[in-house]
């Protein structure tokens, strides 16, 4: 592999235009196809096999017109009268009807003639329900409770809800301009006397628009770090341009995939952008940094400032520079491939959980990582070749950017010497620090995104709060029971249905239960259940579980059965599934980490401490994220919420790959030194000196890129950006730069122990490019370069 990469890097440097043209044409082609065929991302978060999903499927089978609540193209308009007034006031009612008239006139809603103001809708509902319930002998108090549970007008007549359906099959089929046409009218009236907000599936896309601010901020900070690292404006631009090309291709590819898959949701491209930008810059950084080292060697000195290197470059031949790029690609490029492979494995492993939308998010991010690796190995050398001798031009005054090959002590060497003097103290401090930060993680609560977790001040959040205040929290968290009486005698079905309603009403946490629909022969019924608490309240989950626990007794007593579905139960089941698979997934990732590093480092202890260190950094990240975003510690977040259900698993998958990157780039140089005769302690110190500067720069770039995504309005992206930034901070600077070297010093020679039988069966992995160490400028094109194994 090292020889192939050497040839690829040197060829791309010399024959730059075909490589540059290939990637640019590919980007334009994918962008053109995406513009022509891409669809709106999906908003579905369902998982096949969940109790609530199975119940939903049964309901749709028995009631052919029933829609999937998670994908229906519907929304809710919430209106509130001016302070001191009610919606029944003639002037207020006239303004509401004027607004609804304009909404109907847009022509984008289905059955727009049925859209009426909440007062009229309430009166019509009362005229329909009361006679029916009285004829059935329903007690007056139950009639009043049923009306209150479904009335579009609040009890004090100040707030009303209006259900609307867009003229589309699913929410993903709604044109953005159609949503904008309606929301523009609503927002215009909200500026007047009325208070108007909106939420629901159809309006979800308008709730949190994704902008490019995060990417721009991340790139600017990365540029500063790269300029300090290389001491050159031009060299700093190489990783940035390379990463932008890779991310652009990845994001456009994700958008194009929406034409073929319904599992691509609105968060998928943002996550792909986040991880692709970070690793794209880092991988290019590793190669350009190694290229710089090779040029310094070719120039005949190790102690060389950027200005000296720029002067030497002008006298170098193209063959010498191409050889340096080949060596850089064959060495650092080999490590980049293996580092990318670790990220890839961690992300692809998410597919074993069998959650379609999560699998789509992981595969999209994985594909972007693959593109980032390929761009770094082929486009980047060509780009560097394009600048030729000017690649390290644009020198920054006052920035020396020392090379790690320099014999003088670097900051990294001074730090590792401190660790070497007191390894036990540094190990204990590092473990205790991360362990204490991990404590709040025991209180972690997971929930799916709802209008109630939207950013404060956004229309969906405002609408949610208006409904909460006027109708009660449970109005925003309805459940739907599907009562199956097909095995019950026809004459006994009404009694079984009445028993089901009584069972539901008597359950703690249920405010109301009433029949919403029945089949003609009463073999199936839909029962609307209104809980007492909100969708993300733990007590709602307890109520759902109590309803399900009572099903066995109900079936034994009546012969009928029921299941619970709806958005709230579906989201609750998804959270439970994700929480249930969290520990198994962590175990899988740790085992993968151990096996991969066992293969690379040919050691038992190195992979073990690397995997355990990863577990510590992840636990500490969960603790800090829970403390700040869920519990509201330090007052940083003014709207604490449960963590989104799929954040922990996605975080583990991403951080695993990044952590192994740092482990790889630091410890491979330690092993190289040990294999060439250094004592274990000296090898550890020297390897740390060589890798610390680049890994520090890479970590700072990762942290800045991820932290910049906290500026996004989407809660999941904001929290994920924070968690990833903190995870990189802990893993790079506490685990990899303190715990790992401290442990290596304590283990000494034992750090590289591997049973002889295992050493014989493990395949050899040339991550450091040992196979190209014999290549020089003179023999680079010789046939002898081919049989590397014969050396």
Automatic annotation (TrEMBL):
Highest taxon listed in the record's lineage: Bacteria
SUPFAM superfamilies registered for this protein in UniProt: Multidrug efflux transporter AcrB transmembrane domain
Localization annotation: Cell membrane
GO cellular component, one term: plasma membrane
Record-annotated membrane-spanning stretches: 216-236, 267-288, 335-357, 363-387, 424-442, 582-601, 608-629, 649-670, 691-710, 722-747
SSD domain residues: 251-386
Keywords: Cell membrane, Membrane, Transmembrane, Transmembrane helix
A Pfam family the protein falls into: MMPL
Membrane topology: Multi-pass membrane protein
Listed InterPro entries: MMPL_dom, Mycobact_MmpL, SSD
PANTHER family found in the cross-reference section: MEMBRANE PROTEIN MJ1562-RELATED (PTHR33406), MEMBRANE PROTEIN SCO6666-RELATED (PTHR33406:SF11)
Family, as annotated: Belongs to the resistance-nodulation-cell division (RND) (TC 2.A.6) family. MmpL subfamily.
Protein name: SSD domain-containing protein
């Amino acid at each position: 592999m090292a020889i192939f990469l050497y040839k690829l890097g040197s060829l791309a440097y010399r024959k730059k235009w075909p490589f540059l043209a290939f990637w640019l044409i590919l980007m334009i082609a994918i962008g053109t196809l995406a513009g022509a065929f891409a669809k709106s991302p999906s908003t579905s978060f369902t998982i096949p096999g969940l109790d609530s999903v199975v119940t939903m499927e049964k309901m749709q089978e028995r009631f052919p017109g029933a829609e999937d609540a998670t994908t229906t193209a519907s929304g809710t308009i919430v209106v509130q009268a001016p302070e001191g007034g009610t919606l029944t006031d003639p002037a207020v009612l006239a303004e509401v009807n004027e607004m609804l008239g304009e909404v109907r006139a847009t022509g984008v809603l289905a059955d727009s003639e049925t859209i009426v103001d909440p007062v009229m809708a309430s009166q019509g509902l009362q005229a329909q329900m009361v006679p029916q319930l009285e004829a059935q002998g329903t007690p007056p108090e139950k009639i009043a409770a049923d009306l209150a549970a479904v009335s579009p007008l609040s009890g004090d007549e100040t707030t009303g809800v209006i259900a609307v359906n867009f003229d589309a099959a699913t929410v993903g089929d709604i044109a953005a301009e159609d949503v904008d046409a309606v929301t523009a009218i609503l927002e215009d009236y909200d500026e007047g006397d009325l208070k108007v907000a909106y939420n629901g599936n159809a309006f979800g896309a308008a709730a949190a628009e994704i902008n490019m601010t995060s990417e721009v901020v991340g790139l600017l900070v990365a540029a500063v770090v790269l300029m300090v690292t290389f001491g050159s404006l031009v060299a700093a631009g190489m990783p940035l341009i390379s990463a932008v090309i890779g991310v652009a291709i990845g994001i456009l590819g994700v958008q194009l995939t929406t034409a073929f898959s319904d599992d691509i949701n609105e968060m998928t491209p943002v996550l792909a952008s986040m991880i692709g930008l970070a690793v794209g810059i880092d991988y290019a950084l590793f190669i350009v940094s190694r290229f710089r080292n090779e040029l310094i060697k070719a120039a005949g000195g190790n102690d060389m400032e950027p200005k000296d290197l720029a002067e030497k470059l002008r006298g170098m031949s193209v063959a010498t520079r191409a050889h340096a790029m080949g060596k850089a690609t064959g060495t650092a490029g080999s490590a980049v491939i293996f580092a990318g492979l670790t990220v890839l494995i961690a992300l692809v492993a998410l597919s074993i959980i069998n959650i379609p939308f999560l699998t789509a998010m992981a595969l999209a991010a994985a594909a972007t990582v693959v593109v980032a690796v390929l761009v770094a190995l082929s486009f980047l050398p060509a780009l560097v070749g394009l600048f030729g001798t000017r690649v390290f031009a644009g020198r920054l005054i006052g920035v020396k950017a020392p090379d790690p090959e320099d014999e003088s002590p670097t900051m990294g060497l001074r730090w590792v010497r401190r660790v070497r003097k007191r390894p036990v103290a540094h190990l204990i401090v590092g473990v205790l620090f991360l362990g204490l930060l991990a404590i709040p993680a025991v209180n972690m609560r997971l929930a799916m995104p709802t209008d109630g977790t939207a950013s404060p001040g956004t229309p969906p959040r405002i609408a949610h709060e208006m409904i909460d205040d006027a109708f009660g929290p449970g109005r925003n968290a309805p459940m739907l029971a599907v009562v199956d009486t097909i095995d019950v005698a026809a004459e006994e079905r009404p009694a079984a249905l009445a028993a089901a309603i009584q069972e539901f009403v008597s359950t703690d946490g249920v405010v109301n239960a009433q029949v919403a629909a029945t089949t003609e022969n009463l073999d199936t019924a839909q029962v609307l259940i209104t809980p007492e608490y909100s969708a993300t309240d733990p007590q709602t989950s307890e109520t759902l579980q109590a309803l399900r626990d009572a099903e066995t007794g109900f079936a034994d007593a009546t012969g009928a059965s029921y299941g619970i579905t709806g958005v709230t139960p579906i989201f609750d089941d998804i959270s439970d599934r994700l929480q249930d698979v969290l520990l198994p997934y962590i175990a899988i990732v740790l085992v993968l980490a151990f096996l991969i590093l066992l293969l690379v480092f040919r050691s038992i202890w190195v992979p073990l401490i690397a995997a355990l260190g990863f577990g510590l950094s992840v636990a500490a990240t969960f603790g800090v994220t829970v403390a700040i975003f869920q519990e509201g510690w330090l007052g940083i977040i003014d709207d604490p919420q449960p963590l989104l259900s799929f954040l922990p698993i996605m975080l583990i998958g991403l951080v695993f790959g990044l952590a192994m990157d740092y482990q790889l780039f630091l410890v491979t140089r330690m092993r190289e030194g040990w294999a060439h005769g250094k004592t274990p302690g000296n090898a550890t110190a020297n390897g740390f000196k060589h890798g610390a500067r680049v890994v520090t720069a890479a970590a700072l770039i990762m942290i800045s890129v991820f932290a910049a995504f906290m500026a996004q309005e989407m809660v999941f992206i904001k929290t994920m950006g924070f968690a990833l930034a903190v995870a990189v901070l802990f893993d790079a600077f506490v685990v990899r730069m303190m715990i790992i070297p401290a442990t290596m010093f304590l283990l000494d020679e034992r750090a590289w122990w591997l049973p002889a039988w295992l050493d014989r069966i493990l395949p050899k992995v040339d991550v450091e490019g040992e196979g190209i160490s014999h290549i020089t400028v003179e023999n680079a094109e010789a046939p002898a370069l081919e049989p590397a194994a014969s050396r």
